[in-house]
């Protein structure tokens, strides 16, 4: 991991996003570029931002708190920004037709979908998930339903497996709630079939960081799932622990220590997946996208909180 490159990318992204954008969003955007091993291109990013501003109405989440995250996703795509945005809006429309309300999370799901036809399976998986967790399953689960719904396998089986993983981890002392639900969803990434080894891996990884005195907060539960699915080894885990400690000392992460851990994990996953064969490439791209979605979902929540605080104090 190159800390200088992380600091440099963050600094360049911050210049483009400006002082009004929360630094954690600038960090999430920097991570999107870094996790694809791409140099941040300010001109391309600003051009994508302009396309969104020109096309989207004032009420669109793409124009407000998702603006820079959406622009980064669009720059990553092979198509030009206009075509990319057109697809996002087609996906969003199909999600609405499938029965979802229009929210920041449907836009986030639309950014992750490859084609509008995936909306039906997204809704199907979401409804199956609701059967197991009626009150826990909410808008925040839609991006996960979009990515996991497009993977092969029976939706009922995947949702049932998520529920089994959730219960297993709860019994092992994990705190119940949305974060644990997201972790259980990610654990089905590779297969909709229940695999006790997957639970064992998550527990071992969690214990490893505990022993290393790296605090895993609830918001970081999903990150354990990414590590379990990519089957990172002990060397990579030690590297993540060391890099987390290094990043926590830097000026950027001093205030956002929980983001130091997820940044270290993203970098380790890039390195880990690069050494695997080419058949792992589509897997790694989807997984990176899912991890970025998780970070973006966190940012949406952070932004919503910031907006509501600002509104309350100004009212």
UniProtKB/TrEMBL annotation:
Domain of life of the source: Bacteria
Pfam families on file: DUF4003 (PF13170)
InterPro entries in the cross-refs: DUF4003 (IPR025062)
Designated name of the protein: DUF4003 family protein
Species annotation: Planomicrobium stackebrandtii
